[in-house]
Design a protein that fits this description.
Layout: H1 20-29, E1 35-38, E2 49-63, E3 74-75, E4 83-86, H2 92-103, E5 109-113, H3 120-125, E6 131-134, E7 144-150, E8 155-162, H4 170-179
Parallel strand pairs: 3-7, 4-5
Antiparallel strand pairs: 1-8, 2-6, 2-7, 2-8
Length: 180
């Protein structure tokens, strides 16, 4: 939108957070951002207005020589003793998968942390661990096998959040309507 004088009425700033979805949620709660796309379930987002757009299943990405690489599907428990490649703490996918293993009473050993989900299969290919990756990025890399994961309740939600408590302005409403 432009004003009659040619000056923009909307300032759009796109950013990421080094603390992942939890950092973006905090930015919305404290008014530093009006809207954010997050990978956290609505239950983890008290305060902001939340709309889940979709949820994706997880897959296990294993080195192609792994004993379970040719299994038709595996459970999260099957990988409890493995070293993992995952995102840093605070990222939605890390939080979700950590919760699964905590529910087993078996915390995971995350040996490599990388912020970009798209690169996790490459680290698996290099033999640095296994990964549980949501089906929102390319899952395979040369030297890896992708196996469906049976983990009831484990999905990667993509949600749009905006500040709760007060009605959003016209620009934010328009953006939220476009996303919906």
């Amino acid at each position: 939108m432009l004003s009659t004088g040619g000056t923009p009425l909307v300032d759009l700033h796109v950013t990421v957070s080094v603390t992942g979805s939890t950092g973006l949620a905090d930015d919305v709660r404290h008014g530093r951002l009006d809207v954010a796309l997050l990978a956290l379930p609505a239950a983890d987002l008290p305060g902001p207005a939340v709309r889940t757009i979709f949820a994706a299943p997880y897959y296990a990405v294993l080195p192609e020589g792994h004993a379970l690489a040719r299994a038709p599907s595996i459970s999260a428990r099957d990988l409890a003793a493995e070293r993992f490649v995952d995102s840093p703490r605070g990222f939605g996918n890390r939080i979700a998968v950590d919760r699964v293993y905590e529910s087993f009473g078996s915390p995971r050993r995350v040996s490599v942390e990388v912020a970009d989900l798209r690169t996790l299969p490459e680290y698996v290919s290099a033999g640095l661990g296994v990964a549980l990756v949501p089906d929102v990025v390319p899952l395979a890399a040369p030297g890896t096998a992708v196996v469906p994961l049976h983990a009831p309740g484990l999905t990667w939600p993509l949600s749009v959040v905006s500040r709760g408590g007060k009605a959003p302005g016209r620009a934010v409403r328009t953006l939220l309507d476009l996303i919906a």
